[in-house]
Amino acid sequence: MADPDITNRAWLIDLVPDEVRVRCSYRRRRKRIAQFTVQLELFHSEQWQPVVRFDNAHGFCHRDTIHADGSQDKTPVYYGNVNDTFTRAIDDLRTNWQSHRDRFLREVEP
Fold first, then answer.
1. SS in 3 state form for the chain?
2. Are 16 and 41 in contact (CB under 8 A)?
3. How does pLDDT run across 16-72, given as a tens digit for each residue?
4. Please, are residues 50 and 22 in contact by the beta-carbon 8 Å criterion?
5. What is the C-alpha to C-alpha distance for residues 48 and 15, in angstroms, rounded to an integer?
6. Contacts for 51 with CB less than 8 Å, ≥ 6 apart
7. Where are the domains of the chain?
8. Are the beta carbons of 41 and 49 closer than 8 angstroms?
9. Residue 78 — pLDDT band, cuts 50, 70, 90?
10. Smallest Cα–Cα separation from 23: which of 36, 38, 8, 35?
11. Rounded to whole angstroms, how far apart are CA atoms 38 and 87?
12. Which CA distances in Å does 95 have to 3, 17, 29, 68, 71?
């Protein structure tokens, strides 16, 4: 039986339709986020490519900077609590998507 206190939600934010989007998801128990992912994606080479991802996998909140070769740099991030970190991650990608995109494209097309 499903726990009525648990909510799962997923959605996309189109920043540039068919070019740049933010994929968001969370699992929440009452008003507290237990798990989240916020990922900037770029449509490149006929597919959606992850560029930057914020999540709280591996037991801590962090940002993965994803490189064109598939490698990742993991940086811990934490803004007060998990709910605040989730909100700030969305704000960061909405605000800084162009610099993240440009960095990724420089790696693809040096």
1. CCCCCEEEEEEEEEEECCCEEEEEEEEEECCEEEEEEEEEEEEECCEEEEEEEEECHHHCCEEEEECCCCCEEEEECCCCCHHHHHHHHHHHHHHHHHHHHHHHHHHHCC
2. no
3. 999 999 999 999 998 999 999 999 999 999 999 999 999 999 889 999 999 999 999
4. no
5. 14
6. 39, 40, 41, 42, 66, 100, 101, 103, 104
7. 6-108
8. yes
9. confident
10. 38
11. 9
12. 35, 16, 28, 21, 24
User: In the structure encoding, which two tokens stand for residue 38, read together?
Assistant: 């916020």
- In terms of Cβ atoms closer than 10 Å to its own Cβ (0-12, 13-18, 19+), residue 88 is middle
Cα separation values, 15 from 12, 20, 76, 85, 94, Å: 9, 6, 25, 20, 7
Unique residue bearing structure tokens 């991802």? 53
